[in-house]
Amino acid sequence: xxxxxxxxxxxxxxxxxxxxxxxxxxxxxxxxxxxxxxxxxxxxxxxxxxxxxxxxxxxxxxxxxxxxxxxxxxxxxxxxxxxxxxxxxxxxxxxxxxxxxxxxxxxxxxxxxxxxxxxxxxxxxxxxxxxxxxxxxxxxxxxxxxxxxxxxxxxxxxxxxxxxxxxxxxxxxxxxxxxxxxxxxxxxxxxxxxxxxxxxxxxxxxxxxxxxxxxxxxxxxxxxxxxxxxxxxxxxxxxxxxxxxxxxxxxxxxxxxxxxxxxxxxxxxxxxxxxxxxxxxxxxxxxxxxxxxxxxxxxxxxxxxxxxxxxxxxxxxxxx
Amino acid sequence: xxxxxxxxxxxxxxxxxxxxxxxxxxxxxxxxxxxxxxxxxxxxxxxxxxxxxxxxxxxxxxxxxxxxxxxxxxxxxxxxxxxxxxxxxxxxxxxxxxxxxxxxxxxxxxxxxxxxxxxxxxxxxxxxxxxxxxxxxxxxxxxxxxxxxxxxxxxxxxxxxxxxxxxxxxxxxxxxxxxxxxxxxxxxxxxxxxxxxxxxxxxxxxxxxxxxxxxxxxxxxxxxxxxxxxxxxxxxxxxxxxxxxxxxxxxxxxxxxxxxxxxxxxxxxxxxxxxxxxxxxxxxxxxxxxxxxxxxxxxxxxxxxxxxxxxxxxxxxxxx
Lengths: 320, 320
Description:
Chain A is α/β, with parallel strands linked by helices. Chain A contains twelve helices and 14 strands.
């Protein structure tokens, strides 16, 4: 597969910052779209010339976990930039070309070659839009739900869009950054809360009957953000979390138990959502590609990481 | 309200054993049914002579949390054996008579005075049957679900019955006690796993496609039982937990996140379930009262506690 567009993920910043140690140099990048150049003899649904979306992992879509909607737990799947379970090597996505295991399962072809302006939104189906959607689905967002979104990175903003798409009546985005607040509003946020901690919780409750939200979407992964999320939920509410837990914050069972607040989510099985979301991207009903606020050639990947690390950019698109 | 039948709860054993400290002597007991003797001037739906079921807490059923289905988080509710929020004292249920705050909200009258043999099953709607049902609802048990139940106390056994009632196709009860295994089977368990820990998890997975259960109902509340529950769930599965967390075991976020296993539940809002479950008890469709395997006069409450503490009895019914 020839990569047409790739990008840097918030989770790529953990090794970049050294928070997660890198024991040996390896290729990186797991969000990409592109064109199929060649297929193996067993591939039947994907053909050379197809424009395809790759999820941030590979999966066969035939095992019991894939069929249960949890393709991230595929019994035969794996991760980009590492050896795959078929005995080959699946390259990282921040590169020119990638060998894709389980191409029939992992890749989804678009109806035809997309227009240039659709490519950023298609790229978000590789991870951030599917992940935001997973947060919303995990939290049970439905017609009329009240929603709080913790995290204003690309995933948090996509979670706002996902909640809006699923019919939430009230969406409170927690954000301190003006440009992100603006995009959150464009994506469907009805309210912005710029404070955090006790003050943030109080602001959320004041907006929501004094009790908190039906659904809270957590898109950061720190102890503080999870605490914010749990305290923003109403009794009987549900936290849908997709922020990769960093440093393994444990979930405090007692406040969850006392007020029947559930916690659901995890590493988002975005492959299971591609077809559904692709329809809305293709029709123009949603435009999650707006999370990209910087585009650089692949050779300037170092600057892409720096811009995201310093929060000068929400999300950077890379062009090989 | 004159108490006709009360009982001892598994959670009463924590203070009995000294695991939870008792700082000052107080009345105890929170599961009881009986006859209304007298009502206050504002009570409209309950009348003297009614046979009523009391949930294990009082609640008004008019506040936003009660209306959201979480009456255990009632803004005006309280607990038996303590001062209530209306300025009175709500007596413990293991006694002759109880003053019930929010009688219109808290109490549910039966269609008529019940036959003697229905009383144990009606008493379970006060707590254990509603709590088992809450575990099943929280875990999302529905037609065709595969279910594992961790815990073979009265709540665990009622959780088996609840899962069966909701249409689960496979119900694995984890139990090492023959009499409890028998009752689990009578309540709808299709399989029994008598092992625990790694061995128990392996046995469960072997029965369920190698991946674990759609829904796991946790009805103990220890670190070990929660660990057993989480490891028995399939990727994308849900743990419904109702065992009062003892010693506050925290939930391990990483295994939950990696396999998208959700955790939902808490202190069961049984009042919200009384009407629904009462229909099935009244018609004889379910007979949760079978969890009582010992009946004693109230004066022998000490022996009731001892029998449960020593696991000579699953659950003891007390008659004032």
